[in-house]
Amino acid sequence: MSDPQKPAASHLGASGTPNAGATRREFLSEAAAGALGIAGLGSMVVTYQFLSPNVLFEPPTTFRAGSPDLYALNSVTFLQDQLVYIVRTDRGFFAVSAVCTHLGCITQWKPELDEIACPCHGSKFTQDGTKIEGPAPRPLPHFSISLTADGELQVDKLNIVNPRDVLKV
Amino acid sequence: MASTSSFGEALDRLRGTRVWKSIFRRGPALTNRTRSLAVFGNLFLHFLPVKVREQSLRVRASYYLGSISFLLFVILTITGILLMFYYHPAVPQAYRDMKDLRFVVSNGVFLRNLHRLAAQLMVLLVFWHMFHVFYRGGYKPPHEFNWVVGVVLLIVTLFLSYTGYLLPWDQLAFWAITVGTNIISAMPWIGKNVRFVSLGGNLVGENALLRFYVLHCVVLPLIAIVLIAIHFWRVQKDGGLTVREEDGGQGK
């Protein structure tokens, strides 16, 4: 550290790439600094990878919602475990997310007002998820809904579909 | 009188022992020089100033807001460590442990409320401290760096408060973290990834509870301790508090 060549080496380290006139000491200290930098960057990358779980123990995103006969015509049914509304209109069935698009609170169907309301920040939606008012940036998404071979409704929450798509039974 | 003098004698005898002398290598601090050496030579005092101007000790110079914030940090550390002896950061045990602390454990409700109230008071006080320093011009040279350290400490305090909020694992905690991490995911480009890594998943669940626990009990307190040490040390290195004339000082 008390070596008189040290200031020269640090000056060159600040200037960037080693030039042709670099001494052995300057070259070695730049190579060491570069290696440390690469190792530091690499350890940040692997730590990020380590902190991103590969296997999650979260509830399945596809679920069965029972027989279509369970749902009355022109009804909105809230499935509490799945946070989904099953809506049956004369056009058919569709599944609307019950999670508010603002900040993720769970909305509630208000049959007397004919609207879906969020308790957190006052967003309101129609039964097909269209926003009426409030801070929500997007309408409530529709999930794909289908019939299984044995005649039950099945909803896939990872598959967001066009709100015009309904399931006719 | 006889008891005090014999106590004094006992103290003198203690000061004469080899063990005492090995710990406190200097004699009684009776002169300015020995007093200074006593501060320099003590790990816990050496980053405090040896001398302070009388005007910077007046209540109106600082209202001791920073010192009270630090005192609250000490209280939070002690009560937090005690609470950790009964708390499992797991679902659903965390909620039961919180209930046990309130209703079953001796003095648990006292410690838990002390921790909660001290935390809320600390957030209040660090904000007050910041406003006080700001309106005194305490961010001006040569205090700029310490101002920045203080802003980072404010953010660390808020993160400590936020991560602690999830630990009772009740409805309030769950929805506060759900809403808060959805705010994180609104960050451009990296928001979704930051939310995923901070929750350890897509939902506020077991992984999120454990992550917030580790941040709350290990990572953030360590960062806070290092920054507090720098903060105190820089007050001295930057020439003491900013004192104004109307507080009885000559201004600075």
List the topology elements.
The complex is a heterodimer of chains A (169) and B (252).
Chain A: H1 6-15, H2 24-51, E1 62-66, E2 75-79, E3 84-89, E4 92-97, E5 108-110, E6 115-117, E7 124-125, E8 131-133, E9 142-147, E10 153-161
Helix pairs in contact in A: 1-2
Chain B: H1 2-16, H2 18-23, H3 32-40, H4 54-57, H5 59-62, H6 65-84, H7 93-103, H8 108-135, H9 144-166, H10 171-184, H11 191-199, H12 206-237
Explain what this protein looks like in three dimensions.
- In chain A, a hairpin with a 6-residue loop joins strand 6 (115-117) and strand 7 (124-125).
- The longest helix of chain A has 28 residues, at 24-51.
- Chain A has two helices and ten strands.
- By secondary structure, chain A is of the alpha+beta class.
- Chain A folds into two domains: 6-51; 62-161, 3-layer Sandwich (Rieske Iron-sulfur Protein).
- In chain A, helix 1 (6-15) packs across helix 2 (24-51).
- Chain B has one domain: Cytochrome Bc1 Complex, Chain C (Up-down Bundle).
- The radius of gyration of chain B is 23 Å and the shape is globular.
